[in-house]
Amino acid sequence: MARKDTAAEAANPGRLKQIALTYKMTRRADKKIGLVLAAVGIVTFGVFLAIGFLIGHPIYLGILGLLLAFLATAIVFGRRAERAAFGQMEGQPGAAAAVLDNIGRGWTTTPAVAMNRSQDVVHRAVGKAGIVLVAEGNPNRVKSLLAAEKKKMNRIVADVPVHDLIVGTGEGQVELKKLRTTMLKLPRVLTGPQVTATNDRLRALGDLMSNMPLPKGPMPKGMRLPKGGGPKAR
């Protein structure tokens, strides 16, 4: 019991510190976040307290209003923090890889399976929807990368559907903030064992990550591939 209490006490400051850090990061992009959260909390609590006085139960409704005010504030904070985070990541090399890495259970992601010297990148995700190739970079350049990678996928795993997406704000592209939702909406056509078998077959191919270490998430802007860099099939 003592160990559990100690662990809980150690965890709470960590969570509070994380929340504070998230708030500071959000406030850099959303200057009104403090006023918005205060307004949501006060209005929610005020409405329930007023109803409590009207029906003769201000204490009960006040407590309920306080709890719901906290919940509403947390929801609004989470959404605005997510929006601010995507806004800061938009356009940065490797941003799509960071989103794919947090897409959720059932997906296996491999960042940078293909890349050119201009830092245009193709990432791969495998799930029950099949194989999803996600490209980020110049729309004209990534098309050739996608075509080459899709051809390789069709040759190795011809029985698995291959989808391709380009992250961006142009026509026919998927915004970074909508990438996860778009992928989760793809029809599920594979079973669990089929997903595992597909991953095993693709793992045998190798990828760019096995030949050159890359940072997780957005990559440094000054980073360049060495001559001859590129995906190699084994």
From TrEMBL:
Keywords from the named record: Membrane, Transmembrane, Transmembrane helix
Highest taxon listed in the record's lineage: Bacteria
InterPro entries assigned to the protein according to its UniProt record, in alphabetical order: DUF4191
Start and end residues of each stretch annotated as Disordered: 210-234
Membrane-spanning residues: 33-53, 59-78
Record's protein name: DUF4191 domain-containing protein
